């Protein structure tokens, strides 16, 4: 039986990579997505996936993260549950077949501006940016782009190069210009105005995910994406300038 671990909320050992057993577990879960199979192997999930991901987040707590690193990891609050919410989904599989976690300015989920870590055999990746912007934030983002297209295009140019290390991701876009932006249909940022999410991504190999090198790759992505993150944070701060909850969301 795999060993389980209990540590204080803000302390974890160094991250040395996800094990081959972690990838074997996720591969098996994809083929056997049912509660009986998972329950019999939950100790493997806890020891080989959940705990290493907590250790990875622990590398970015305030007292351990690299100098100038703009985000923080929280081993307790930053990791997504393996259990799927199937209440309103046609897909009734009870478990996700990947492991995911975020680093944010507060360390918790729901804070705007993230680095997201996605671990899945053959499909692992990192993302940085803004996912699922609410109505006011998205409207302010679109307005900023429409007012100064060149600023945004210059910002994302490093992530649009063919065969580059990083790429832009958006996960869903409108088919037509959103209400209030029809006059910008010929703008050089017209396609971006249709986006709902704004993310910079990079793929990572299974070998990279199984190595301490993953810590460096997260740092490199955050470094490369910092102007992009700062752009969004500035828009967010302006959009919610008079909202007292803003200070709670961005507390470090």
Mean pLDDT reading: 92
Derived structural class? alpha+beta
The proportion of strand residues reads: 5-15%
Q: Between the first and last Cα atoms, what is the distance in angstroms?
A: 38 Å
Estimate percent helicity.
25-40%
Radius of gyration: 19 Å
The coarse silhouette is globular
SSE pattern: HHHEEEHHEHEHHH
Any idea how many domains?
1
Question: Based on the structure, what is the oligomeric state of the protein chains?
Answer: single chain
Number of helices: 9
Largest sheet: 5 strands, antiparallel
Question: In short, what is this structure?
Answer:
This protein has 252 residues and is an alpha+beta fold. It is 38% helix and 10% strand.
Q: Can you walk through the features of this model?
A:
The chain is of the alpha+beta class. It has one domain. Helix content is 38%, strand content 10%. The chain is built from nine helices and five strands; from the N terminus they run H-H-H-E-E-E-H-H-E-H-E-H-H-H. It is globular and about 60 Å long.
Structural descriptors:
alpha+beta; 10% strand; 252 residues; disordered C terminus; 5-stranded antiparallel sheet; 9 helices
Architecture blueprint of SSEs:
Elements: H1 20-31, H2 35-40, H3 42-58, E1 99-103, E2 114-119, E3 125-130, H4 135-147, H5 149-156, E4 167-169, H6 190-193, E5 198-203, H7 206-209, H8 213-239, H9 245-249
Antiparallel strand pairs: 1-2, 2-3, 3-5, 4-5
Helix pairs in contact: 4-5, 4-8
